What does this fold into?
Amino acid sequence: MKRLLEAELIYGRLLDILEPHLIARYNKALEGFGLKRTSLQRFSIDMTGFSPEIAEELGDRDYLDPNRVNRRFIILTPAQAELPVVHTSFSNTAALMHEFFNANSRAINAITIKDALYGEIEDSVSVVEDIDDLLSINEVRFRVLSAEDMLGKATELRELVDRLKKVPNAWADDAMLGRMVELAKATGDIRQNVLVPDELVFRHEAFWANHFSGVYVFLDEKTTTVICDPSVPGFRRSRPWQVSYIAITDYARIYDFLAASNRLQLPQASWVQASGLFQHRADMVIRGLVNDADPEIDLRRADRIWLQTWIHRNAALVARDGAYPFLQEMSRAIAATGTIKMQDVAPKNRFLLVRAAPQHPDQWLVNRLVSELVPRDFVSRFVFDKQGFYKAYEGYSETFREYVVATLTGTYLKDKTAFRQKLYGLKEE
It folds into this structure.
C-alpha cells in the first residue's frame, strides 16, 4: 500500500494533529472508550477522528468501530466536517456525521475551543449476526460526551441558573454562587455560547454494510430491498413479508429493481456522448484484457495506436470476452438513434451502459453497486467503492499497480469534482 499512500490514494486529505492540547484531548477521549493513550506526537484523523497511525499503534483498525456497529467518533475541531471518512463499516457514516455537524455547528464550534467531543453513533443492535440485525437499524442516536467535561459543566451551570431564577432567596446561597462563577470560568457565558448539541437523532437511510462481504439495503416507501450474496444468514428469511431479496449475481433482477425505482439513468445520446462513459468503460475493459494476457506489460506507455495493434493481434481473445466489441456497437447505436433498447441487451452487459440517476438521493450507493458489477472499471471502483478497489488492488501485479496509480492521479485526483460531474453527472458529495 506504500504506493497508494505516497499518491494519497489511501488516507488522503486527512487532518494532521500535532498541537499538544489537541493530543491531550484525544487521549482523554481514548481513555473514555477504555483504550490506551497514544504516545504519538503527531498523527492524522478523518471526519470521525479515526487515525491510521493510532490504529497501527493499537494494532486495531476497528478501535473506533467495535463489532462494526455503534461507530465511535472523536471531534477535535469543526474542520473535521470537511474531511473524508476513510474507515467505516457503513457507507452512510459520512452522511450521518455531516448531518450531525450541520445540525449542531454552533455547539461544536463553541465546545471545541476548549474541549473535544466524543461518543458513539448508537443504533438498535450491538452485534450483526444476520440480515435482520441490519434491517432493524431505522435510526441512530449520537451519544455525546466531552473530554474536559465541558458538556457536564454547561448542564450543571444551566441548572444552577434556573435555580437562581426560580428559587426564592437562592441568590443568598454563597456556595452556589461561587460554583456558578467557577463553572462560568470554564464554559463562558452559556447565554451566548450554545454548548450542548440539540439534534442527536437521525434517520438511517439506504446503505451498504461491509458485513457478510457486503450488503446493500435500499429503502422505499412501502418496501425494503436487500442485495447481497444469497448465502448470507437471514437471506429470504428475515421479514419476507416486507423485504425483497435479490442475489448479487442476479443481474436481471438488480437492473429491473434499479430501473423501475428510477435509480438508474438509462442511456440517451444527450448525456452518453457528453460524458464519454462508453469510451471510458471500453478503455478500462481493453486495458484489463491486456493485463490479463500479460501482467508485466507497462500500460503507462500504451497509446491508442499500440492498443489498436494489440486488439488486432488478439482479436479472438477480445471477441471471446465480448465487452469491448459490445461497447463499440453500443456507441455506434447511440450515435445513430440517440437511444438503446435495453430489453435487447444481455442483463450483465446492461451495467456497462448506465450510471446512477444524478438527482436520486441514493446516487452514490447506486454507483457503488454498478461499479461492483463492472469490476474492470477500477476508476469507478475507486471513486465509489474504495473497499472493493483496495481488495482488487492487492491482487494486481506490481506493473499494473503502477499503471492504476498513474491513471488515478492523472485523471480523478486532478479535479475530482469536474471528473465526477462529467463521467457520472454528479455535482458535489
User: Anything to note?
Assistant: The mean pLDDT is 91. The two ends are 26 Å apart (CA to CA).
